[in-house]
Write a structure and sequence with these properties.
Layout: H1 3-11, E1 16-18, E2 27-30, H2 37-46, H3 54-62, E3 66-72, E4 79-88, E5 93-101, H4 110-124, E6 129-133, H5 139-143, E7 148-149, E8 156-160
Parallel strand pairs: 5-6
Antiparallel strand pairs: 1-2, 2-3, 3-4, 4-5, 6-8, 7-8
Length: 162
């Protein structure tokens, strides 16, 4: 199978290759590749999040408007190294939750690429407003990408459709 065909078969039609500084590292964003719950749990452990019961995580994913994985490409077994999900009505508003990039992959602009991909996918739904909640130590990351902080500058930020 050709590379393009292989990537489409593994990650779906709407996948996106992430540029990386390492030529031997291939990373792919996908909203179509299913998220393995145990891989997601390992990613959450790596970023220091508290554990949630698997059955509740499964239910949250099932009820999400959008689920995006950032995968280290391997034709045999891609590895989940980043994740984000969104909830919402799918018409007017959405909220971004659970954005994570494995610490070994942080600092190379992958979080920004993940958020751009998320907003592009939500843009296809023609949403007018996207909100997110972030821990105080990462709010500046979103602010640097053009998110507007809520009036008290705490945890909530907004993105408005141009």
């Amino acid at each position: 199978m050709a590379t393009a065909e292989l990537l489409t078969s593994l990650y779906g039609q709407q996948h996106r290759i992430c540029p990386t500084p390492k030529a031997d590292l291939s990373l792919v964003l996908s909203r179509e590749r299913p998220i393995d719950l145990f891989e997601l749990e390992r990613l959450c452990d790596a970023v220091g999040w508290s554990r949630r019961p698997i059955r509740r995580v499964r239910k949250a994913l099932e009820h999400s408007l959008l689920r995006v994985g950032l995968w280290r490409h391997d034709p045999r077994l891609p590895k989940l190294v980043g994740f984000a999900r969104c909830t919402g009505d799918g018409v007017v508003e959405a909220t971004v939750w659970d954005v994570a990039v494995h610490p070994l992959y942080q600092g190379a602009g992958l979080g920004k690429q993940l958020m751009v991909y998320v907003l592009d996918q939500l843009g296809e739904l023609e949403l007018d407003r996207v909100t997110l909640f972030a821990d105080p130590e990462v709010v500046s990351f979103y602010e640097a990408q053009g998110w507007e902080l809520e009036p008290l500058n705490r945890r909530c930020a907004f993105w408005y459709s141009p």
